[in-house]
Write a structure and sequence with these properties.
Shape: globular
CATH class of the largest domain: Mainly Beta
CATH architecture of the largest domain: 3 Solenoid
Oligomer: single chain
Number of domains: 2
CATH superfamily of the largest domain: Hexapeptide repeat proteins
Largest sheet: 6 strands, parallel
CATH topology of the largest domain: UDP N-Acetylglucosamine Acyltransferase, domain 1
Strand order of the largest sheet: 6-9-12-15-18-21
Helix content: 10-25%
Number of strands: 22
Distance between the termini: 60 Å
Order of helices and strands: EHEEEHEHEEEEEEEEEEEEEEEEE
């Protein structure tokens, strides 16, 4: 089998989790990482940080494939900007799926998306480009996840839900069937969403105890 090289953009905690999925899938060999100036020359899980975003044209010319492995919490902007830059450079952005995940053959997963250990994407679901479907997340039948979304660990997206581009769904959140969530929302950790959510909505921060 011809194993192709892959750049990993990121050198933090989420990148470490992505590396584990890439290794388990076995389709690609990791050429190295792209990180910050402070991370350049260091290693993560035995893989060297080859350079920074400024070095992307030369790195992409050599390796041609990449995965964006930086996290998405409050905003998807860094991931969106990197995705657009890689497309401009002619970079191939494969989807990565853990062998411990389950993707229905009747589901669709977009370019640059990673589906992590224990996740399930069920029949008729559509997951967009450059998404994170994190460990043990559930995307049920006929749900639609827009581009650049993060469905965090153990979140439940029930059947027929629509999630707008750039939205973050927190760990252990549950979305009632058929609700619609606008673009660039933040659904809080453990939240039970029973009704539609307007674009750009974030949870009210909890007050700290005195």
């Amino acid at each position: 089998m011809n194993v192709m090289s892959l750049l990993v953009l990121g050198a933090g905690g989420h990148a470490a989790s992505c590396i584990d999925v890439i290794e388990a899938e076995g389709r690609f060999t990791i050429a190295g990482l792209v990180g910050s100036a402070a991370e350049s020359g260091k290693q993560l899980l035995g893989y060297a940080v080859l350079g920074t975003d400024a070095d992307l044209p030369a790195l992409v010319a050599r390796h041609r494939r990449a995965l964006i492995a930086i996290g998405h919490l409050r905003t998807a902007d860094p991931r969106i900007h990197l995705f657009a830059r890689l497309q401009q450079l002619g970079c191939e952005l494969p989807s990565i799926v853990s062998p411990l995940a389950r993707i229905s053959r009747h589901a669709t997963v977009g370019a640059g998306t990673i589906v992590m250990h224990g996740a399930l994407v069920n029949a008729g679901a559509v997951v967009g480009r450059n998404c994170i479907i994190n460990s043990h997340a559930l995307v049920e039948h006929d749900a639609v996840i827009g581009d650049h979304c993060h469905i965090a660990t153990a979140a439940v997206v029930n059947g027929g839900v629509r999630v707008g581009c750039g939205t973050f769904v927190g760990s252990n959140a549950t979305l009632r069937q058929s609700v619609t969530i606008g673009e660039r929302c933040v659904i809080g950790m453990g939240e039970r969403l029973l009704t539609d959510r307007a674009p750009g909505t974030s949870p009210v921060p909890e007050k700290r105890r005195p």
